[in-house]
């Protein structure tokens, strides 16, 4: 068996330590909102090592909204304009 085989990974984006939750939202989640309004399904999945900031990025903290809050704000705003009905599932 080969335990040390090479692996290649593809990333949608890489963010440095100065990136804000708003930066991450604008790049990764915001483009999904019109697709959801059009009737498609979307998922934002945070994966990484313990302590890497997944919960902070998704849920935020006081004074800095996470991706969930920002997505809900944009989604509901666009849904009202489009007279669309929205159903949401949140799993942590």
Description:
With 92 residues, the chain is mainly alpha-helical. 39% of the residues lie in helices and 4% in strands. It has four helices and two strands; from the N terminus they run αααββα. The protein has a two-stranded antiparallel sheet with strand order 1-2. Strand 1 and strand 2 form a beta hairpin. It is globular, with a radius of gyration of 16 Å.
Quick summary:
The protein has 92 residues and is mostly helical.
Question: Could you tell me the strand content as a percent range?
Answer: under 5%
SS element count, helices: 4
Biggest sheet record: 2 strands, antiparallel
Rounded radius of gyration (Å): 16 Å
> Segments where pLDDT lies below 50 for 5+ residues?
none
Helices and strands: which structural class? mainly alpha
Query: Kindly, what is the distance between the CA atoms of the first and last residues, rounded to a whole number of angstroms?
Result: 36 Å
Shape: globular
User: Total number of β-strand segments?
Assistant: 2
Major beta sheet, strand line-up: 1-2
Helix-residue proportion: 25-40%
Element string (H = helix, E = strand)? HHHEEH
- Average pLDDT level: 89
């Amino acid at each position: 068996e080969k335990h040390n085989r090479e692996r290649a990974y593809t990333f949608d984006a890489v963010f440095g330590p100065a990136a804000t939750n708003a930066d991450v939202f604008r790049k990764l989640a915001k483009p999904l909102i019109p697709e959801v309004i059009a009737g498609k399904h979307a998922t934002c999945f945070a994966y990484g090592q313990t302590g890497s900031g997944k919960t902070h990025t998704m849920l935020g903290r006081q004074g800095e909204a996470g991706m969930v809050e920002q997505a809900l704000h944009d989604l509901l705003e666009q849904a009202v304009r489009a007279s669309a009905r929205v159903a949401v599932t949140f799993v942590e």
